[in-house]
Design a protein that fits this description.
Helix content is 28%, strand content 22%. The protein has 8 helices and 10 strands. Helix 1 packs antiparallel against helix 8 and helix 7 packs across helix 8. It is elongated, with a radius of gyration of 20 Å.
Length: 278
């Protein structure tokens, strides 16, 4: 039986969310011309996308890749305008905001971690209300945070408006409160990580892949770990998506299907601290 060359429509679109398995797609003919798949978007997904494309291009000589960052909104805009083949997004679809005709393919789950400088580990962790009070500016001094080792001003580090991590943080942690205007806005996870690493008074939020040199704060009594994200005990977990204009086809469909279903991709997801779908 010949398998379809497109991915199943049973994925998230701008008007539908579903999370079932994608059927396999036909292999490309050995004589097929080499194609380039381009990606832009989420800085959280960027390290994972790079690792995935390196492995895939090593086993499929018909494909090469170009991968850029810029934030989830940029990835979604770029793919909707045909500038890239795949937009990488670390935020969920927004049916009333996103351009029509996009297909969102969930590739993994990711934990968003609250981070502080190692000199300020916050032994008690933080509740949802405390996080909202800190990042909204209601609590401005570490002296007012039980378990904090610092006593001075709280320096907030946050992402810019194009960020899927910001969208996830606001939905998962803020409980409807607005982010303080005093927060420094950064263009990537790495920049927040670096800012918190050098500032004992800072607090921020990043994808779990960006914890080197910083302290991950317990949230609602649960540590930000891959195991806790997988078990759903950790409540700061969001989805990673690959987005195409219309249904993915051809080499793009084969690549996304490989990411979602292959053992080789699963090993990469685990190594990059992402949680596979199953």
């Amino acid at each position: 039986m010949r398998l379809p060359a497109t991915l199943s429509r049973a994925v998230a679109t701008t008007s539908l969310v579903a999370a079932i398995a994608v059927p396999a797609v036909a292999a490309a003919p050995a004589s097929a011309a080499k194609q380039t798949i381009t990606m832009s978007g989420s800085t959280s997904i960027y390290p994972l996308a790079n690792a995935l494309q390196k492995k895939y291009s090593a086993i499929n000589k018909n494909v090469s890749f170009r991968v850029a960052q810029g934030g989830s909104d940029k990835g979604i805009t770029d793919v909707s305008k045909g500038r890239v083949t795949i937009g990488n997004s670390s935020r969920d679809p927004r049916p009333n905001v996103d351009p029509k005709g996009l297909s969102f393919y969930r590739i993994a789950y990711d934990a968003v971690c609250l981070i502080t400088n190692p000199a300020n580990p916050i032994a008690n962790g933080l509740t949802q209300k405390q996080v909202a009070d800190i990042f909204s500016g209601k609590i401005r001094s570490w002296s007012d945070v039980p378990g904090a080792k610092q006593t001075g001003t709280i320096n907030l580090q946050a992402r810019n408006e194009a960020s899927g991590t910001l969208d996830a943080f606001e939905n998962l942690f803020m409980g409807g409160a607005s982010l303080s205007s005093t927060a420094a806005r950064q263009a990537s996870n790495g920049l927040i990580q670096a800012a918190v690493k050098r500032d004992p008074g800072a607090i921020g939020f990043v994808s779990i892949e960006f914890l080197a040199g910083v302290h991950a704060v317990n949230y609602q009594g649960v540590a930000c770990t891959v195991a806790n994200a997988k078990s759903k005990a950790y409540k700061g977990t969001r989805s990673f998506w690959m987005v195409t204009k219309g249904a993915a086809k051809g080499e793009t469909a084969r690549f996304i299907n490989w990411v979602r279903t292959s053992d080789a991709a699963r090993k990469i997801l685990i190594k990059q601290n992402a949680v596979p779908q199953s």
